[in-house]
Specification:
Rossmann fold; alpha/beta; SBP_2_dom; elongated; six-stranded parallel beta sheet; transmembrane; six-stranded mixed beta sheet; Peripla_BP_I; 3 domains; membrane
Length: about 325
């Protein structure tokens, strides 16, 4: 009994102190619970977006996806990714139709040159679904914005590389592609940008512009024909990575490395290897990661600011031996 009395006496003397401790403990518990609840609420995605790529295997589209994923995390949105394994415009249109039918909050899509794409983009517009085109544009449609590279500047940068590679004196052959998957107007702008920049160099002449039609094999055949029939040609410009690889391989096979300068496009593993071996002087390309990130950011701006530039330029990447090591380190971060 005496011990119990001592305890009660202690409680009576320190009742205020004990109550303060209880209040502090309860407050801490309630704060933790409220923080947990707020954290759960903040995890609810703001929007559900839909992305349609040209294919799922090209390194360019993998980097675009990584840019979108990074932006999705930063802006707390969910993105559904879809793309045919290999280039297939009909399958792209199917995914676009699914996105519109699903009434998603916004769409990022590659634009193929297949028929029906403008009609579907306009359908999304009529339903009030913001749509951003990426890499290839659809200027005649009601898309909200295009995110990609200024093709004219891309051509101008390629011309600058050609000037450096040849010292401003060259007989040049250009190989473009008739691949219906490529935006022909974009290719034309590249060529115009190239020609506009070399016109101030009187000793640089474009001998002929060739069109490849069957991918790598055709580019190889064209380069073979150039070597056999036009020995004055000492420089080649290619405008896509497939033709860049094809032309380069023929240069190697015919021991023309150092005799014919190549300015190409892209950063495929073999292209970077050819740059390292000085088979290709340099390449130009778009910035795929930035394209991905900026395309999702554009959708956010359209949804929340209702005002966004109709063309978001993501700049041009240039790769030569001088910056190859630095560029490879950047590429490694995406793998």
């Amino acid at each position: 009994m005496k011990k119990i009395k001592v305890v009660f006496d202690f409680i009576n003397r320190n009742i205020i102190f004990i109550l303060l401790i209880i209040i502090i403990i309860n407050g801490a518990i309630l704060y933790k619970l409220s923080q947990r609840e707020q954290g759960t609420i903040s995890m609810v995605p703001r929007y559900h977006f839909y992305f349609i790529g040209q294919n799922s295997v090209d390194p360019l589209w993998k980097q675009i996806r990584q840019g979108i994923e990074a932006a999705a995390e930063d802006y707390n949105v969910v993105v559904e990714f879809n793309a045919p394994r290999f280039n297939n415009p009909e399958e792209e249109l199917k995914y676009l139709d699914i996105a519109i039918t699903s009434n998603v909050d916004g769409i990022i899509t590659h634009v193929s040159n297949g028929s029906g794409v403008v009609e579907l983009i306009n359908k999304a517009y009529e339903k009030g679904i913001p749509l951003v085109t990426i890499e290839n544009d659809s200027k005649t449609s009601n898309r909200n914005a295009f995110v990609g590279t200024n093709s004219f500047i891309l051509g101008r940068e390629a011309a600058q590389l050609m000037i450096k590679a040849t010292g401003g004196e060259a007989k040049i052959a250009i190989i473009v592609s008739s691949d219906y998957e490529l935006d022909t107007s974009s290719q034309n702008l590249k060529i115009n940008g190239f020609l506009s920049h070399i016109k101030d160099y009187p000793n640089m002449k474009v001998v002929e512009i060739y069109t490849s039609e069957l991918g790598t094999i055709s580019a190889e055949e064209i380069t073979q024909s150039i070597i056999n029939n036009q020995p004055e040609v000492d420089a080649i410009l290619t405008t896509n990575y497939v033709d860049t690889l094809g032309a380069s391989q023929v240069i190697v096979d015919h021991n023309k490395v150092g005799e014919i300068s190549i300015i190409g496009y892209g950063d495929m593993e073999n292209i970077l290897r050819y740059i390292k071996m000085n088979i290709i002087y340099g390449t130009v390309m778009s910035d795929p990661y930035k394209m991905g990130y900026e395309s999702l950011k554009a959708l956010i701006d359209i949804k929340e600011k209702t005002n966004v530039s109709t063309f978001i330029d993501t700049g041009v990447r240039v790769v030569t031996q001088s910056n190859l090591h630095e560029y490879e380190e950047i590429i490694d971060t995406f793998e």
